[in-house]
TrEMBL record:
This is FAD dependent oxidoreductase domain-containing protein. Keywords: FAD, Flavoprotein, Oxidoreductase. The lineage of its organism: Eukaryota, Metazoa, Cnidaria, Hydrozoa, Hydroidolina. It comes from Clytia hemisphaerica. Its cofactor is FAD. GO terms for molecular function: flavin adenine dinucleotide binding; L-pipecolate oxidase activity; sarcosine oxidase activity. InterPro entries: FAD-dep_OxRdtase, FAD/NAD-bd_sf, MTOX. PANTHER family: PEROXISOMAL SARCOSINE OXIDASE. One of its GO terms (biological process) is L-lysine catabolic process to acetyl-CoA via L-pipecolate. One of its GO terms (cellular component) is peroxisome.
Length: 311
């Protein structure tokens, strides 16, 4: 449902469809798997050939044997507005946000957990840690060394020369394309398509700056689009926190059950946050959840518990 939109009276989801493009010479198994999943879930879709992709969704210009799945129920989440909407409801429910406040230490305890920041300290019966790319640094003093890597991803916005192409008004969808690339219509910046790679170089969280690696997304733009600049007009930064199997970690700390951890979302966490948030809250409140969490447990990794804490 779209309950959050109704509660906040904001448009948070634009239903402009989702297009997944596959190279039939290399990705036919992935195409068939996607169709099977959609069929199993009774999600309506259409399959397009190369000519149909190029005609319906300019500035795409594929040559060769390609297929695409178009899901009319898909679309684009307005990420900043979604975050603001959640924060608004959180504050209306009595929650307090502490922006620009750095966590310096977490002190576990059987009855209360203490969080020390650069401004104050807080005590609670339970604690949920969802600290993104900084989670490993917070957990190592708590005897937990999760096998997480940090990837620097670059969000690139590319100028389209033909007015109207790549826009919502032209019916242009969100998309996933070869080379592990994805993107959205021209929404955030007028006249610019958002086209990005799903992943990037591994970085140290203390030294995260890396020059952009745009080889894959540049291949897409130069080989499979027309009338689009070959260099991005705007480049923004994003950090992925990646687990070895690229699956989530949603679990209690193995030594301190009143500390709950949500991490390892591997670049796909935002869209799942309403569900993962409910799960983490249930764990913190010792309530049952209707979901099978076995695949998200910390115990699937070996040698993560360190009896000597590291700083």
């Amino acid at each position: 449902g779209r309950d959050l939109e109704r509660q906040t009276n904001e448009t948070l989801f634009i239903q402009n469809g989702m297009l997944e493009v596959y190279d039939n010479t290399t990705d036919s198994e992935k195409l068939n798997l996607s169709k099977k999943v959609l069929n199993d879930l009774n999600v309506p879709y259409k399959v397009l050939n190369t000519e149909e992709i190029n005609r319906k969704y300019k500035p795409f210009h594929f040559e060769g044997d390609y297929s695409a799945i178009f899901e009319s129920l898909g679309g684009t989440l307005m990420a900043n507005k979604c975050l603001q909407a959640f924060q608004t409801l959180y504050k209306e429910a009595g929650g307090v946000l502490h922006d620009n406040e750095q966590v310096k230490q977490i002190i576990p305890g059987n009855d209360l957990v203490t969080v020390v920041t650069n401004k104050s300290q807080f005590k609670a019966k339970s604690l949920v840690i969802t600290a993104g790319s900084f989670v490993a640094k917070l957990l190592k003093p708590l005897h937990l060394d999760l096998p997480l890597t940090i990837q620097r991803n670059h969000l690139c916005f590319w100028r389209v020369h033909n007015d109207g192409e790549g826009t919502l008004e032209a019916g242009f969808p969100s998309f996933k394309t070869p080379y592990l690339t994805y993107g959205t219509a021209s929404i955030e910046y007028p006249g610019l398509l958002k086209i990005c790679s799903h992943g990037g170089p591994t970085v140290d969280i203390d030294y995260p700056d890396q020059p952009p690696n745009m080889d894959d997304v540049t291949k897409l733009v130069t080989n499979h689009m027309k009338n689009v600049d070959h260099k991005p007009a705007i480049v923004e930064n994003c950090l992925y926190t990646v687990s070895p199997d690229r699956d989530f970690i949603l679990d209690r700390h193995p030594m301190y059950p009143n500390i709950v951890i949500g991490t390892g979302f591997s670049g796909t966490g935002f869209k799942m946050s309403p569900i993962t948030g409910q799960i983490l809250a249930s764990l913190a409140l010792n309530k049952n959840t209707k979901y099978d969490l076995s695949r998200f447990k910390i115990s699937r990794f070996e040698n993560v518990l360190k009896m000597k804490a590291s700083l």
